[in-house]
Amino acid sequence: MSERDFVSAAEVAKRAGVSRSAVSRAFTPGASVSESTRQRVLQAAEELGYQVNHLARGLMRNESGIVCLVVSEVATPYRSALLRELTQQLQIAGKVAMLVNTDRSDGSVDRALQQAIRYRADGSIILSGLPDKSITQLCLRNGQRLVLINRDDDQPGPLRINLNDDEAAGRVVTAFVRAGCTKLAFANSEAGTPSLMAREAGFIAAAKAHGLDVIVERYGWTGYEAGRVVAQRLLTRSERPDAVFCATDLMACGFMDEARHQFSLSIPDQLCVVGFDDIEQASWASYNLTTFAQPVAAIARSAVSWLTGDPSSSGLDGQSVKLHAELVWRGSVRGG
Amino acid sequence: MSERDFVSAAEVAKRAGVSRSAVSRAFTPGASVSESTRQRVLQAAEELGYQVNHLARGLMRNESGIVCLVVSEVATPYRSALLRELTQQLQIAGKVAMLVNTDRSDGSVDRALQQAIRYRADGSIILSGLPDKSITQLCLRNGQRLVLINRDDDQPGPLRINLNDDEAAGRVVTAFVRAGCTKLAFANSEAGTPSLMAREAGFIAAAKAHGLDVIVERYGWTGYEAGRVVAQRLLTRSERPDAVFCATDLMACGFMDEARHQFSLSIPDQLCVVGFDDIEQASWASYNLTTFAQPVAAIARSAVSWLTGDPSSSGLDGQSVKLHAELVWRGSVRGG
DNA sequence: GCAGCATTTGCACACGCTTGCAAAAGCGCT
DNA sequence: AGCGCTTTTGCAAGCGTGTGCAAATGCTGC
Question: d(Cα A134, Cα A145) in Å, to the nearest integer?
Answer without folding.
Answer: 15
